Request: fold
Amino acid sequence: MGSSQVQGELWSARAREWAELQEGSFRPLYEAAFAAAGVGRGSTVLDVGCGAGLALQIAQARGATGSGLDAAAGLAAIARQRCPGSDIRLGDSETLPFPDASFDVTTGFNSFQYAADPVRALAEARRVTRPNGCVVIAVWGERERCQLAPYLAAVGRLLPPPPPGAPGPFALSAPGALEALAEPAGLRPEAARTVTTSMRFADEATALRGLLASGAVERAIRTSGEDMVRGGIAEAIRPGRQSDGSYVFANEWRFLVSRV
Reply:
């Protein structure tokens, strides 16, 4: 089984929880990226790693025609329900199943950097984007500006040891890192920008349901057991607890618009 199939199976395990409890917090990032890329009426957009389809919904609301690709069948099924008429396919970001120069804008929200070969994935994004179109790469912002950083670290400690040189979630957060990734793929970077999002949960039980819903956490559960993962996450997110028992986490994201 290839890496995209493995990741797809992991991300499908709690697809509904991801869609209902985590994905909505990314709306400000999607809105800012689409505005910067000029997505509007008549635009054609491909979202690589489209997940449960919220970004495509937002693109459609701006008047665009949306297409998507994801490795997770469970997430893609939700995306198709949310975005009727969209062309949403299963596949790998390094071999996009779309013709050359098909889209005005191609996006990857926290996805391109997790390809086995990120430069190849970006070269594929460039291939399917029209001349002078945009490729958008979005990643976590700087660790110090992400209140979920302790959660990510707790999950990391419960995963199998990564291969030597494997990038962590903040590997592309520093100024200039996204530009250095885009240029070898033949893209022309414009200015990188940051957006702060807020992830909110009504109580600890809801926070745990939501924060267990990712491929990395599912892999940690299968490695270390759900009780250990739940306990580690509960400890890590304690600083986010508010006086009314809810949980709130502000997180910075960095995105780069590049021209083809």
